[in-house]
Specification:
- The complex is a heterodimer.
- Chain A is of the alpha+beta class.
- Chain A has one domain: OB fold (Dihydrolipoamide Acetyltransferase, E2P) (Beta Barrel).
- Chain A contains three helices and nine strands, in the order βββαβββββαβα.
- In chain A, a hairpin with a 2-residue loop joins strand 2 and strand 3.
- Chain B is α+β, with helices and mostly antiparallel strands.
- Chain B has two domains: 236 residues, Gyrase A, domain 2 (2-Layer Sandwich), CATH 3.30.1360; 88 residues, Elongation Factor Tu (Ef-tu), domain 3 (Beta Barrel).
- Chain B contains eight helices and 19 strands.
- In chain B, the strands form four sheets. Chain B has a six-stranded mixed sheet with strand order 10-11-12-9-3-13.
- The chains are: A alpha+beta, B alpha+beta.
- At the A-B interface, strand 4 of A face loops of B.
């Protein structure tokens, strides 16, 4: 698993990149009450706003971590956004991407580096 | 952070693992480890303990007695204070010369004096307003008492176990009851829509009383986050968001707080700041009204969201002043102001969220029915 400074995690699975937010981020946001996911098939560029999350505290944007195509989104989150708080790195995943340039993954932190990053 | 004030429960909040944030000049718990959703639901289902010691407790005395003090307060507030019996409390407002609301507060007749409980952010201004504006009265803010709120369906049982007699109090009764923590000034009231109590206790005893309440199985600590979602579900205004110096009680749907005796034709009509504007609005209707909104879907329409009469085009006809997801409602909810011609319940209105106009329906408040002991 790789991590971004925006507190997203990325996991390679069957040639795709699964993306979600970290437990740390979910905890900081508080109880999540609304998630707006992108459409499958959408082409996105790194840092495009692709997901909107609303917690009991505030709204936040989630940025595309890499260039590519959104090939699948976690539809059940629309009705059960609390899954992100319960299982941020499992059932709480947001979307799967086909990476245009897999080398962009090299920029991200590993788990040890992310742990240092969040202190 | 060093200039923030703290309440007598500051150390206890830290011990309980609260997330502390600045609020109205105090460092206050926004949530405990359980989180806003669970705290909210716990208060609706059992009992929640809130630290509201940051609020101002102000004693008003007059050498001629409590009636003279009540008559003086009526000069600042469009409320029937003289008609408030001993041992009773009611919701009140300070108004300004334009009819705007300077603060909302509770006022109690405690026999030989009045006790006003005012918002933390307004208390310095309120004390100044009362000191100048209540002729002949002695106005003193109590700095030596904490204030706790115990709210929820189990609040009565929990408090009765520690302070026998509170179960006999009715909604908006006030009483002084002896206890292991000194004399407690108790009111059966709150700001969550639930039954419950607000308890004024000596500062030095506040933590001990809070610990005794938290030792009761049904009672959990609740932070400001859940306090906000509870009051919003109950359709209650937050001063500074939903009402302020630019909104009148009539616009805000608080005309019920202005008893008939203070309205046109009443025995003590007018005689408060902004009376002309407020009484005229009661007769003619205001140009805008506070309304409740239920957005379709799950996206909350938060404070500042502009409201439109149609899905496309046109100028804004209002805006949201508070908005959140209602944990008990299971859906988003907002309150805000719209021009009077669009304020009818059942009307569809559009709120602009992230550049998209999303539909919402105007509904009656509270969003969640109140559960108080009348």
């Amino acid at each position: 698993m790789k991590y971004t400074e925006e507190h997203e995690w990325l996991r390679e699975e069957d040639g795709l990149i699964v993306v979600g937010i970290t437990e740390h981020a979910a905890e900081q946001l508080g109880d999540i009450v609304f998630i707006e996911l992108p459409e499958a098939g959408k082409e996105v560029a790194k840092d495009d706003e692709v997901v909107v999350i609303e917690s009991v505290k505030a709204a936040s944007d989630i940025l595309a971590p890499i260039d590519g195509e959104i090939v699948e989104v976690n539809e059940p989150l629309a009705d059960e956004p609390g899954k992100v708080n319960e299982d941020a790195t499992g059932d709480g995943w947001f979307f799967k991407m086909k990476a245009s340039d897999p080398s962009q993954m090299d920029d991200f932190m590993d788990e040890a580096a992310y742990k240092d990053f969040v202190g | 952070m060093s200039d923030l004030r703290v309440t007598p429960l500051h150390a206890l909040h830290q011990e309980l693992g609260a997330k502390l944030v600045p609020f109205a000049g105090y460092e206050m718990p926004v949530q405990y480890p359980a989180g806003v959703m669970k705290e909210h639901q716990h208060c609706r289902n059992a009992a929640g303990l809130f630290d509201v010691s940051h609020m101002g407790q102000v004693v008003i005395r007059h050498p001629d007695g409590v009636e003279a003090a009540a008559a003086a307060v009526e000069g600042l507030a469009p409320v029937d204070v003289l008609g408030l019996g001993e041992g009773r409390q009611r919701y009140a407002l300070f108004t300004n010369e334009h009819g705007g609301i300077e603060d909302d507060f509770m006022i109690a007749n405690r026999g030989d004096h009045l006790l006003a409980v005012v918002n933390a952010a307004c208390k310095a201004a309120d004390v100044a307003r009362m000191t100048e504006g209540l002729p002949g009265c002695e106005v003193s803010e109590l700095s030596d008492r904490g204030l706790l709120a115990l709210q929820g369906p189990e609040a009565e049982t929990a408090l009765e176990g520690l302070v026998p007699g509170v179960g006999e109090m009715k909604f908006m009764d006030v009483a002084t009851l002896p206890s292991d923590w000194g004399d407690l000034w108790i009111s059966r009231s709150g700001y969550t829509g639930e039954d419950g109590y607000e308890i004024s206790v000596e500062a030095a005893q506040t933590e001990a009383l809070a610990r005794a309440l938290l030792a009761v199985d049904a009672v959990e600590p609740i932070g400001l986050g859940a306090r906000d979602s509870l009051r919003l579900e109950s359709g209650l205004c937050l001063y500074g968001n939903d009402i302020d110096s630019g909104t009148t009680p009539v616009e805000a749907g608080l005309t019920w707080a202005i008893q008939k005796v203070r309205r046109a034709g009443g025995a003590r009509a007018g005689g408060f700041p902004g009376a002309e504007t407020i009484l005229r609005q009661i007769e003619d209707g205001p140009a805008r009204r506070r309304v409740g909104l239920r957005p379709e879907g799950r996206a909350p329409m938060r404070e500042g969201t502009q409201l439109y009469a149609s899905e496309d085009g046109g100028d804004a006809v209002g805006h949201v002043t508070s908005g959140a997801f209602g944990p008990t409602l299971g859906a988003p909810m907002s309150m805000g102001y719209v021009a009077a011609q669009f304020a009818e319940k059942g009307t569809t209105i559009w709120g602009e969220v992230r550049g998209k106009r999303l539909p919402a329906t105007l509904v009656a408040m509270p969003f969640v029915p109140a559960n108080v002991k009348r």
